[in-house]
Design goal:
Strand content: 5-15%
Strand order of the largest sheet: 1-2-4-3
CATH class: Alpha Beta
Distance between the termini: 20 Å
Number of domains: 1
């Protein structure tokens, strides 16, 4: 959630176009990365395929956990742990994977857990369970009780292995009306509202605030606060600049997923560290203008339960988009910068609802899918 959020979770996450200038320097390293025992595509296929179907309940619950791990998260931090207890599954936060600079309140972390919850619920109903959710206030985890029931297959189930953030530019085409209606009428959660922005004038307002968010997060003058170098350092911690890093961790932002080349870490850090705020702002503005529109997910309350519900609504939207071949990605900068959040809220006419997520969407080419840790790695 997440980010990365993801934020994620989270397109300021891309490595600058300047990476291309370093390809010559890193040629020998790239050849090294393509050794036959390093196979990113094979690992990605294993990550996103279903586990072997079993009738034993404990095995079925492991499959539900697997579906949950394919959810979105900020910076692809995967900040979740799962406990299987008889007929229940608990989703716990993994605070060792939090993003203290970009997400100091753990808001996006809990949104990421909500995304995992939604995947789990879709898979549970299709597997013949009636799930009953207990939200995390005042507890610090999500409790899902599973009662045997008639299977209720959803078209969103098949979209779980298709959904991923496509952080490249789109083709600028308008969304087909039937597909847009399916997305716009996705069911919401209590207290959650969505705002679709499709006309060019309003999109220009969004571009302006994404620009200001980038300027704030990347600006060197903010280094003494929660931005500047601290932001860039946290970002680079979660970038996987080559397949060797991605396969070693099974998490984070893999450079080719954003259309960037593989490079050694020293070069990637040097380039990202040299990011100028306006360069990043211009890159994201270009991506935003290539999109068919954006959707803002908002809520009047701001607590763990609401954040989880926000994650559920986002994941529903993302799954529905994937089902009708619409690409999507986060651009959360104006929400992550506290000083801009209220201004952005007023500028796009949200009334009393606080913006929680900003997602651009459109048609575009598929990019490589990110990796996930195995079920064994996330079970308590």
């Amino acid at each position: 959630m997440p980010k990365r959020q993801p934020h994620l979770i989270v397109n300021r996450r891309q490595v600058l176009q300047r990476l291309a200038a370093g390809i010559t320097l890193s040629g020998g390293y790239i050849l090294y990365e393509y050794q036959p025992w390093l196979n990113y595509d094979r690992q990605a296929q294993n990550t996103w395929k279903s586990l072997k179907q079993e009738s034993v309940m404990s095995a079925q619950l492991r499959e539900l956990v697997h579906s949950a791990t394919l959810a979105a998260s900020g910076h692809n931090t995967q900040p979740w742990l799962f406990a299987i207890k008889e007929n229940t599954i608990e989703i716990h936060p993994d605070y060792t994977r939090r993003l203290p600079i970009v997400d100091p309140r753990d808001r996006e972390l809990w949104i990421s857990l909500g995304c995992a919850l939604e995947n789990l619920l879709v898979a549970a109903r299709a597997s013949g369970y009636a799930p009953e959710v207990t939200y995390p206030d005042p507890a610090d985890f999500i409790h899902v009780r599973l009662t045997p029931d008639t299977a209720q297959t959803s078209p969103l189930l098949a979209a779980i292995p298709l959904r991923h953030n496509t952080r490249s530019a789109y083709d600028g085409q308008t969304i087909k009306s039937d597909a847009l209606k399916q997305v716009q009428f996705v069911p919401l959660e209590p207290g959650v509202v969505v705002r679709f922005i499709l006309n060019p004038q309003e999109l220009n307002t969004v571009v302006e605030y994404v620009d200001r968010g980038n300027q704030s997060q990347f600006a060197e003058r903010e280094a003494r606060h929660q931005g500047g170098r601290a932001f860039v350092n946290e970002l680079t911690t979660w970038i996987r600049f080559n397949q060797k890093e991605a396969l070693a961790t099974l998490d984070g932002l893999y450079s080719p997923c954003s259309g960037n080349p593989q490079v050694p870490r020293w070069l990637g850090k040097m380039v990202v560290g040299g990011t100028k705020p306006q360069q990043q702002a211009d890159a994201d503005a270009k991506k935003l203008r290539s999109s068919a529109g954006v959707v803002v997910i908002a809520a009047e309350s701001d607590n763990k339960t609401v954040w989880v519900r926000i994650g559920q609504v986002y994941e529903r939207l993302a799954l529905q988009m994937a089902a009708v071949e619409i690409k999507s990605a986060f651009l959360n900068q104006p929400i992550e910068v506290a000083a801009l959040r209220g201004q952005f809220q007023s500028a796009i006419g949200l009334g009393n609802a606080l913006p929680q997520l900003l997602i651009r969407f459109g048609y575009g080419k598929s990019m490589p899918q990110s990796l996930r840790r195995s079920v064994e790695q996330v079970l308590i």
